[in-house]
Structure prediction request, 268 residues.
Amino acid sequence: MASIPELYTREMHTKCEYLACWLPSTRMAVGDVGLLSGHRFRKLTTLAELGIPFTRNEDSPFTDLDYSSAECVAVEPGVRLGSTADDALCNLSVTFTRDGATLFQASGCVQESMGNIPALESALRTRHENRDWRLEYVVVTEVVRTGPTAILVAERRGAQLDLQVSTSALTSPLPIASATAKCAITRRQGIAADVLAPDGATPLFNAVQLRKRPLRAYDLVFRSDDDELSEAGDWDAPDEPDEPDETDLIRLTWADLGQDGTAAPSDV
Prediction:
């Protein structure tokens, strides 16, 4: 049975074509270096701290994000509180009918990305050849930085989150995200994660990893009976000089989020 982190990260990747990590509140930035394990990113350092130069593309406005698991999330306004428009509040209830169901609202999104990836690949190859870069490391090359954001993930069917929010937020296309600046949780039941971030978050990203190229298949050579071979068992292939492992910089996929990046390094 899939875990809640697996359900959440897969659903967001399918919808947005970006990676998402658990927990949704994880802070990330272009140039971060760390490990992926169990759908979590653990930051170790940055390219800047390692003295590896990189360039950044100009920030690009990104569409507002409004997503909820199909037919599994219901948002219902409740009783209005307060006597005037200035102090008017109301109750808002969000209920979920599936394990891992997600509500994701984010406004003011901006795409931040790294430029000149081939130059980064060359720099990391050199570091690896000098035994100064582990193949387990991943580099964040792109993030979606948001404005006011609400991310709710259900731990189980029947989960519910009740909020007290400003009534003015209810007129927004993204009511829960808009309400994050002035809201209070009044009930929380069966919720795996709730991110209410009025100052924004970095919930979506892309990353790369340096990997060894697959070994070439051996060539099958057919010999005739006329070929001169030594006695069986005595023939040795000619020695070949040792060469550095060939590597490529690979863009990570959703399947890579579940890898065990905390295992003992296989190569340094």
